[in-house]
Specification:
By secondary structure, the protein is α/β, with parallel strands linked by helices. Helices cover 40% and strands 14% of the residues.
């Protein structure tokens, strides 16, 4: 057999990689019908330009002729980048974080993989509120772990009672994502506090304190007064993983970091382990050029109001068509309910939408059967012109 059996099984699973497959299908349809006649809401690919400060710093640094400028560095990253990310994290979390707590990474995905490899023994469990970012299944499975999906509450807040019942002696971590992909839900400070109390109570009974991992690439993109909560103030054994893919519109540059709570008794060992796993996973280090760029421009002002405007326009389209959805508080996704007549089959409904050149992501891939996701980080013209297609798609059900 040319490839491993378990990889082939995952590759061919209907729900595996569905977002990317929809994106590729969109490219095919655009070649047939033209860019303006396909309404592609499948992939969360930010289309706002990076702040001008980022582009200017990139150009300035790229022109350097300093000797050994592109050479190896410490696996944890350049000291100046770690200092800058520590300052950023301190501001966001409301507590002092030192550069020794930071490991630069190859995006948030690289951060999560380095971290999970560092903490998981075979058979260990990672609890995640459902629905969740689809790739978590693979990231946890990469290191012999088991992803335990715990349904959120009706308002898509983390259900601490259900999480408490799912905790076991094998629980290595609880992984949360706020603002959430795919629901757009922003967890409140009270909700993070309640989750921390649940983990603390479990640790007292079991003798094992799970890590609380916060995946935060959308932290800065919030609406209607919502604010992303601090976790470091609530729970000692906490870690933030994030990137600059969304807030600075740099998804292709693969730059992010891990920040460990300095109050954690296991901080030094975990940081050392993440430095080690960054090396042995083959990343070696985060991209050097981008480390220098974000070290100097992480606080560049960015205007996210176009996302809010697009959200409102797309919600108006769905209202006109009669499609139910969750009003997002952050990120750039609408989480929508599959209409009656499809028996909750999100795959079938996304195929139905495709007949009208509308591309969305089936909710099953996110652990949300009966729902589908629309990414509104697309042009306002595409959103406006999709209105008639949504209405027609709903008129022609059954």
């Amino acid at each position: 057999m040319a490839v491993a059996e378990h990889i082939k099984e995952m590759m061919t699973s209907p729900s595996s990689g569905i977002i990317r497959r929809m994106f590729e299908e969109g490219m095919r349809l655009k070649e047939i019908y033209g860019e303006d006649n396909v309404y592609d809401f499948s992939l969360g690919n930010p289309d706002l330009d990076p702040p001008v400060e980022v582009s200017e710093e990139f150009a300035r640094i790229a022109g350097s002729r300093e000797k050994n400028f592109h050479g190896y560095m410490p696996n944890a990253g350049y000291p100046e980048a770690r200092r800058a990310m520590a300052e950023k994290t301190s501001q966001e979390q409301g507590v002092s974080v030192g550069p020794e707590c930071v490991v630069m990474s190859v995006g948030a995905a690289g951060a999560l993989n380095a971290l999970l490899k560092a903490i998981l023994n075979p058979g260990d469990e990672v609890i995640v509120p459902s629905p969740f970012f689809a790739e978590y299944r693979h990231y946890v499975g990469n290191y012999g772990g088991k992803l335990v999906e715990v349904p959120c509450g009706k308002d898509f807040s983390p259900d601490c009672g259900a999480i408490g019942r799912a905790l076991s002696g094998r629980t290595a971590a609880v992984l949360v994502n706020s603002p959430n992909n795919p629901t757009g839900r922003v967890y409140t400070q009270d909700e993070i506090h309640a989750l921390a109390e649940t983990l603390r109570d479990h640790a007292g009974k079991s003798g094992r304190a799970p890590w609380l991992i916060c995946d935060e690439p959308y932290r800065a993109i919030t609406y209607d007064g919502a604010r992303t909560a601090s976790v470091f103030t609530e729970y000692e054994n906490s870690v933030v993983v994030t990137s600059f893919a969304k807030n600075l519109s740099l998804p292709g540059e693969r730059i992010g970091y891990i920040a460990v709570n300095g109050a954690s008794p296991g901080k030094d060992e975990l940081v050392a382990a993440c430095v080690f796993t960054t090396r042995i996973l083959g990343y070696v280090n985060a991209p050097g050029l981008m480390q220098r760029v974000v070290a100097r421009t992480w606080s560049a002002p960015a205007d996210y109001s176009p996302y809010r405007k697009r959200r409102d326009e797309l919600m108006a389209n769905l209202d006109a068509a009669g499609i139910e959805y969750v009003r997002p508080q952050g990120a750039f996704y609408l989480w929508c309910r599959v209409p009656d007549g499809f028996g909750g089959d999100d795959m079938a409904f996304c195929e139905h939408l495709k007949k009208y050149r509308i591309l969305g992501a089936p909710g099953s891939g996110f652990g949300g059967k009966g729902w589908f996701r629309l990414a509104y980080c697309v042009s306002e013209e595409i959103i406006r012109s999709s209105r008639a297609a949504f209405i027609k798609a709903m008129e022609n059900i059954g």
